[in-house]
Amino acid sequence: MTTTLSPARTATTSDGRTRALLACGVLAGPVFVLTGLVQGLTRAGFDLTRHPASLLSDGSLGFIQITNFLVTGLLTLAAAAGISRTLPGRWGPRLLAVYGVGLLCAGVFRADPQDGFPLGTPAGPPASVSWHGTLHFVCGGIGFAGLIAACFVIGSHLTPGRARYSRITGVLFFLGFAGVASGSTSPVVTLGFWAAVTVAWTWLATTSAHLMRR
Fold first, then answer.
1. Total domains present in the chain
2. Cβ–Cβ < 8 Å for 24, 82
3. CA 51 → CA 1, 115, 147, 183, distances in Å?
4. Average pLDDT score over the chain
5. What is the pTM of this model?
6. Is residue 137 a part of any domain in this protein?
7. How far apart, in whole angstroms, are the C-alpha atoms of residue 64 and residue 70?
């Protein structure tokens, strides 16, 4: 015996799945930022003014940040799927998915220890860059580029106010990433990147929540 769902029930089921996917976009930022900050404030030798979140993957407790990268990468991919079900155009969700894959790769390929972290690591940059450190940087750069582009493309399908907010977020994140990519170890640059990451995650959370209401 075959059971056929009514069109109304099918639509309700589809809407529920879409909201569940978008809810992942709301959760991703708080999970990443709070997990990173708690580690940054409690792990011995880690300094928020000197060290990026990627270094938290190193050391005996590195599995926490590795898990953070993997979980938030999956949440971001789910959010991209949810956005693709609510907005026209394919490139915005695809670009956001690039960022999600970049997070997954960041969890698989660890950054090299440097600048005194973990404890016992010599000060300054690593004497040599490992293959996994290289892949971490490359994948991170590709993922960040995807996120920046996603801010502009997804924003183009939103209201004028949210479109401006999306563009501003993309510009701020680009500036934050450019600062750390330059190799600068200035506390202003490092803290600026932490702030840029928070701004970007806030954009994803608020955009996902907005689309859930729609």
1. 1
2. yes
3. 62, 8, 22, 12
4. 92
5. 0.91
6. yes
7. 10
Question: Which residues make beta-bridge pairs with 114?
Answer: 117
Q: Which two tokens stand for residue 211?
A: 């689309």
Return the percent helix, strand and coil in the chain, to nearest 5. Answer: 75, 0, 25
* Contact yes or no for 26/205 (Cβ under 8 A): yes
Residue whose structure tokens are 């000060």: 123
Whole-angstrom distance, CA of residue 136 vs CA of residue 129 = 11
Burial of 210 (C-beta count, 10 Å sphere; 0-12/13-18/19+): middle
Of 95, 93, 69, give the one whose Cα is nearest residue 81: 93
Tokens encoding 192: 């600026």
pLDDT at 10: 54
The pair of three-digit structure tokens given for residue 169, joined into one six-digit string: 């977020």
Question: What size, in residues, is the chain?
Answer: 214
Taking alpha carbons only, the member of 194, 150, 179 closest to residue 51 is: 194
129 assigned to some structural domain:
yes
Please check whether residue 92 lies inside any domain of the structure.
yes
- Give residue 132's pLDDT: 94
Q: Is 117 helix (H, G, I), strand (E, B) or coil?
A: strand
**Domain range spanning residue 99?**
25-213
DSSP label at 159?
A: -
DSSP state letters, 91-105: HHHHHHHHHHHHHHH
Is residue 19 in some structural domain?
no
State pLDDT tens for residues 139-152: 999 999 999 999 99
